[in-house]
Design goal:
Layout (H helix, E strand, L loop, with lengths): L1 H41 L3 E2 L4 E8 L3 E8 L6 H6 L1 H11 L5 H12 L3 E8 L5 E6 L1 H8 L5 H18 L3 E2 L4 E9 L2 E8 L6 H6 L1 H8 L2 H39 L3 H6 L8 H10 L1
Parallel strand pairs: 3-4
Antiparallel strand pairs: 1-2, 2-3, 4-5, 6-7, 7-8
């Protein structure tokens, strides 16, 4: 009788310990996510070139929230706002076959049952468009094993779909960009031209000059230099984030080494004084 009571008592305590372990482990994952996001947020504002900047990255306890300040000369916030499903589809596609560090971040978010919110704010109007991905949608993205080549094509198509939402767009006094298409292996801009200002025949006759004028050698060198500098800055930021993240996560791991003792004693059949003392001491 006493033996059965002891076994039942030990079993109940073990169940409580395992339940506590599961809760604490979840808490540890959330602590890691908070640490990672806090480190990333320190790097804000993050320059995205002419498109705009990432002004903040936070974890609100339920979602990782990116706030982006967008250049409204390039991005029409109202169009994004009016096309939430297209915006969500495009962002979801961009996360297919992500880089290793991005994938680890998504996995960590999934473990914390966290969603993703992206808030696009117009730099002049202040108008906002919000894209929301639930935790389940993120998990589905993580578990999708797309062919890399096919994934690249899909990402390009998703980007063009988003870009086409912004068209028609006035490119110059005489040219309006109507849409962009993928034809064969080329990305093709479909434009309309005001022939009173620039006859089509004139464009055809001066095709070589027009082609050269799209991006001159001087402009190319300048763009190449600017993007090279931006890339180097981004790589330096990534290294700084990774270094600080590793440091913070190491501190968190050291603070929670007592969890190893729960794992060590997960199969005990009887609760002894030694077990209790060691668990309490390490906690």
């Amino acid at each position: 009788m006493t033996g059965n009571l002891l076994k039942k008592s030990s079993g109940f305590i073990l169940l409580c310990s395992i339940s506590l372990l599961m809760l604490v482990m979840t808490g540890c994952q959330e602590a890691k996510l908070k640490t990672v996001i806090a480190v990333a947020n320190k790097q804000c504002p993050i320059d995205m070139g002419a498109v705009g900047t990432i002004t903040s990255i936070i974890y609100d306890g339920n979602n990782v929230v990116y706030t982006l300040n967008m250049n409204e000369e390039i991005t029409n916030i109202k169009i994004l706002k009016d096309n939430p499903e297209s915006m969500k589809s495009s962002i979801t596609m961009m996360f297919q076959n992500p880089a290793a560090d991005v994938k680890e971040m998504l996995k960590l978010m999934a473990k914390c049952n966290s969603g993703l919110h992206m808030i696009f704010v117009g730099n002049k109007s202040g108008e906002q468009a919000v894209c929301e991905l639930t935790a389940e949608e993120l998990k589905e993205v993580i578990n999708t094993n797309a062919d890399p080549a096919q994934s690249g094509q899909t990402k390009l198509e998703a980007q063009l779909k988003m870009a086409n939402l912004q068209f028609p767009m006035q490119a110059s006094e005489e040219v309006i960009v109507e849409k962009i298409e993928v034809i064969g292996e080329s990305v093709v801009y479909i434009c309309s031209v005001d022939e009173e200002l620039c006859p089509i025949s004139q464009i055809e006759e001066n095709a070589a000059e027009v082609k050269e004028g799209i991006v001159s050698k001087e402009d190319y060198v300048e763009l190449h230099s600017a993007y090279g500098k931006r890339l180097r800055n981004a790589e330096e930021s990534i290294r700084a984030i990774q270094k600080e993240m590793d440091s913070e996560l190491e501190k968190a791991d050291k603070a929670n080494t007592w969890l190893d003792y729960f794992v060590k004693y997960q199969d005990i059949e009887e609760l002894s004084r030694t077990v209790v003392v060691e668990l309490i001491r390490k906690a």
